[in-house]
Amino acid sequence: MLPVTGRVHSIETFGTLDGPGIRYVLFLQGCPLRCLYCHNPDSRALNAGTEMRADEVLADILTYSNFIRSGGVTLSGGEPLLQPEFARAVLEGCRANGLHTALDTSGAVPLEASRPLLELADLVLLDIKALDNGLCETLTGAGNADTLATLDHCERIRKPVWIRHVLVPGYTLDDAHLKALAAHLKNYSVIQKVELLPFHKMGEYKWAKLGYAYTLAQTPEPTVEELSRARAHFRAIPAFRQDYSHLN
To answer: How many other C-beta atoms lie within 10 A of the C-beta of residue 187?
Structure first.
């Protein structure tokens, strides 16, 4: 059999933000979305990055096993669901070696293609761009039907989920939107954590380097007061006040 190969954007060997514990984070190349606030626009093209074999990625992962044994491995992107065979090979290799795995995804891929990976990973970090479909299209160029279907499937198979949601002033940093999102999420028992992430401009220089028009150049980053107000909408829901479920 031919080795399974994929395109890798970058690797972080001491990650602390993409899942529990210290993690090896594999950022895969390619993304179907065009988020206005994307901080890795260079990960969009599926044919860019570095071609690697799944077995050599796994071999590299295992060299860090002493550091990540209490954490694990996270597949991120880009959108890792765009490379299902490669992602599956890496996830299976990690499972065979007793390593916890997480899949960091926007869920913007039809469930027919993503289902095997969702079922294989130990944890799904699901980035909900916007609950309102029209707002999601404005922010990303695509609707949210596949994302919400991903969350529904995780509920059916009892797959632990961490929700991620970026707070963008003028878009998602809105009381009505956040109240609706919190009310929607309270219906899911598999959600263990909700991360409300403040919009930032750390990737703006990449847009300029690639010649892309950055439409959020004049958008301010959220204030401390705005972040506190946003999180209050979720803390008001009993399900998100339980010990196992906390807000960042």
So the answer is: 10
SS3 sequence of 165-184: EEECECCCECHHHHHHHHHH
* pLDDT score at 245: 38
Letter string b/e over residues 206-220, b meaning 16 or more CB atoms within 10 A of that residue's CB: bbeeeeeebebeebe
Supply the pLDDT for residue 97: 96
* 191 in Cβ contact with 242 (< 8 Å): no
The C-alpha angle with vertex 196 and arms to 132 and 177, in degrees rounded to 5, equals 25
pTM above 0.70, yes or no: yes
CA distance 108 to 146: 5
Instruction: Give Cα 115 to chain centroid, integer Å.
Output: 16
Residue 235's pLDDT is what? 85
How big is the CA angle at 95 (ends 152 and 26), to the nearest 5 degrees?
Answer: 75
Q: Which residues of the chain have pLDDT under 50?
A: 1, 242-248
Nearest-Å Rg of the Cα atoms of the chain is 18
pLDDT of residue 21: 96
| Rounded Cα distance, 244 and 248, in Å | 13
